[in-house]
């Protein structure tokens, strides 16, 4: 059966997005960890995570052990991001094959939605953990705890909840479609 033009464009876009997601899966840990081990990269990218507690906004005074600990804290968010990207990449790969509502496709979207929700909830805690860790590690500042919940965090959680709902709707639609196929 020949594919219709819309189907070809969806497949082409899905292939492109799968490739872009793969690039993102490489860049996220590279930049997320690179800011702790390459001070020049942190300065080029702008604000360093937890820069309020590193004194002058530079992390060049950190000894290796402190950098390693900060990278470890960053790994939680990086891991969540990668988990979500693996899922959405699976969605794109299935879309490239024309399997828009396959079990793998719906599962990939659910994985992305879950990672987005957990990541949005984790973000304010990450700020708090960074504030404690970096202020204690920095001999030039007082110990501090920052607890922050702003409109950006609430928007991120709301968006993630919307994605989570959409994932469940897609899963239910898939289940009902399978039931219909069994009946027919």
TrEMBL record:
Q: Kindly list the residue ranges recorded as spanning the membrane.
A: 16-42, 62-86, 112-134, 154-171
Sorted alphabetically, the keyword list is:
Membrane, Transmembrane, Transmembrane helix
Superkingdom: Bacteria
Pfam hit, one: DUF2975
Is Transmembrane included in the keywords of this UniProt record?
yes
**Entry-linked InterPro entries:** DUF2975
What is the recorded name of this protein?
DUF2975 family protein
């Amino acid at each position: 059966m020949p594919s219709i033009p819309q189907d070809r464009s969806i497949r082409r876009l899905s292939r492109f997005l799968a490739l872009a997601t793969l690039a993102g899966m490489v860049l996220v840990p590279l930049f997320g960890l690179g800011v702790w081990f390459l001070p020049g990269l942190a300065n080029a990218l702008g604000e360093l995570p937890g820069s309020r507690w590193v004194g002058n906004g530079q992390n060049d005074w950190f000894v290796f052990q402190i950098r390693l600990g900060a990278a470890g804290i960053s790994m939680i968010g990086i891991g969540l991001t990668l988990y979500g990207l693996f899922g959405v990449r699976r969605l794109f790969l299935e879309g490239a094959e024309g399997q828009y509502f396959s079990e793998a496709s719906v599962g990939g979207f659910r994985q992305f939605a879950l990672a987005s929700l957990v990541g949005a909830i984790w973000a304010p805690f990450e700020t708090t953990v960074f504030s404690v860790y970096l202020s204690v590690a920095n001999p030039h500042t007082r110990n501090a705890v920052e607890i922050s919940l702003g409109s950006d965090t609430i928007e991120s959680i709301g968006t993630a909840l919307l994605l989570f709902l959409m994932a469940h709707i897609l899963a239910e639609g898939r289940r009902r479609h399978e039931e219909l196929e069994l009946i027919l």
